[in-house]
Automatic annotation (TrEMBL):
<keyword id="KW-0808">Transferase</keyword>
<dbReference type="InterPro" id="IPR029044">
    <property type="entry name" value="Nucleotide-diphossugar_trans"/>
</dbReference>
<keyword id="KW-0460">Magnesium</keyword>
<feature type="domain" description="Nucleotidyl transferase">
    <location>
        <begin position="2"/>
        <end position="237"/>
    </location>
</feature>
<comment type="similarity">
    <text>Belongs to the glucose-1-phosphate thymidylyltransferase family.</text>
</comment>
<comment type="function">
    <text>Catalyzes the formation of dTDP-glucose, from dTTP and glucose 1-phosphate, as well as its pyrophosphorolysis.</text>
</comment>
<dbReference type="GO" id="GO:0000271">
    <property type="term" value="P:polysaccharide biosynthetic process"/>
</dbReference>
<keyword id="KW-0479">Metal-binding</keyword>
<dbReference type="GO" id="GO:0019318">
    <property type="term" value="P:hexose metabolic process"/>
</dbReference>
<dbReference type="Pfam" id="PF00483">
    <property type="entry name" value="NTP_transferase"/>
</dbReference>
<dbReference type="GO" id="GO:0008879">
    <property type="term" value="F:glucose-1-phosphate thymidylyltransferase activity"/>
</dbReference>
<dbReference type="InterPro" id="IPR005907">
    <property type="entry name" value="G1P_thy_trans_s"/>
</dbReference>
<dbReference type="GO" id="GO:0046872">
    <property type="term" value="F:metal ion binding"/>
</dbReference>
<dbReference type="InterPro" id="IPR005835">
    <property type="entry name" value="NTP_transferase_dom"/>
</dbReference>
<protein>
    <recommendedName>
        <fullName>Glucose-1-phosphate thymidylyltransferase</fullName>
        <ecNumber>2.7.7.24</ecNumber>
    </recommendedName>
</protein>
<keyword id="KW-0548">Nucleotidyltransferase</keyword>
């Protein structure tokens, strides 16, 4: 499976903070926002990943993440000059997707929960049409909302309904069969001229091949698109990390535990950031995995 992170847009709801910098490069507590969606794809065992951003921000993302080789990844980049809907990602990324299924994640979404990697990997194979991820919310009228039958098959999707049929919001994480590219090519733009992801998903609903995976109690789904939401996400992550002594979405640790890199490589990546608590944490994780002396004398 290939992966796409959609990290474009102007971030206008976060102005003036995003006037000169991408929203997805802002810090969420102790690391750039882009680390969180990237770690989700890594936990799904996806290593070929396309990052779609704006022409202005492309250089900064390349400078931060490079080609991904140090993490055992293959990162590529493309641009979305103007935002024309989430489904445009499949047209921009058609060459990257090629003949494979694809996972799309929005660059400002944060997911966290026990067993998340196993849940993701269990849903990356044998995709019949699309797999969406639902999360219970108290204000479903603000979201796209999914309704399912007893087997988890989606029977309807409503975009910001006035009378929601369920409280399960569709999150910013989507898995698709390869035919999503052709579907995106053939949907009609909305009145705003955008290719809506909900219209793509409705095609699979009509075919009976759309499935909803519940992210229920014990999971967190955070959107960081406003100043308040960004602050709340940072405070949530700060609390968890300080109480548990772990770092959520630490890319180097995820790469090590997924087997993308070995302990020596992980330690070296931490040592390059050794003046920060983040770098010290990476070195500690590498040493716990392989307690043998690493780079003696350094």
């Amino acid at each position: 499976m290939k992966g796409i992170i959609l990290a474009g847009g102007s971030g206008s709801r976060l102005h003036p903070a995003t006037v000169t910098v991408s929203k997805q490069l802002l810090p969420v507590y102790d690391k750039p926002m882009i680390y969180y969606p990237l770690s989700v794809l890594m936990l799904a065992n996806i290593r070929d990943i396309l990052i779609i951003t704006t022409p202005r921000d492309l250089h900064q993302f390349r400078s931060l993440l490079g080609d991904g080789a140090t993490l055992g990844l293959n990162l590529d980049y493309n641009v979305q000059p103007e935002p024309h809907g989430l489904a445009e990602a499949f047209l921009i990324g058609a060459g990257h997707i090629a003949n494979d299924p694809v996972a799309l994640i929005l660059g400002d979404n944060i997911f966290h929960g026990y067993g998340f990697s196993d849940l993701l990997q269990a849903n990356t194979t044998d995709i019949e049409g699309c797999v969406l991820f639902g999360y219970p919310v108290h204000d479903p009228w603000r979201y796209g909302v999914g309704e399912t039958d007893g087997s988890g098959r989606l029977t309807s999707i409503e975009e910001k309904p006035t009378q929601p049929r369920s409280n399960r919001a569709i999150t910013g994480l989507y898995f698709y069969r390869n035919d999503v590219v052709d579907i995106a090519k053939n949907i009609r733009p909305s009145a705003r001229g955008e290719l809506e992801i909900t219209d793509v998903n409705r095609v699979y609903v009509e075919r009976g091949t759309a499935r909803l995976v519940e992210l229920g109690r014990g999971f967190a789904w955070l959107d960081t698109g406003t100043p308040d939401a960004l602050l709340q996400a940072s405070q949530y992550l700060q609390t968890l990390e300080q109480r548990q002594g772990v770092r959520i979405a630490c890319l180097e640790e995820v790469a090590l535990r997924m087997g993308f890199i070995d302990a020596d490589t992980c330690y070296s990546l931490g040592r390059a950031q050794a003046h920060s608590p983040y770098g010290q944490y990476i070195m500690d994780v590498a040493s716990e995995v392989d307690p043998s002396p690493i780079h003696p004398g350094t």
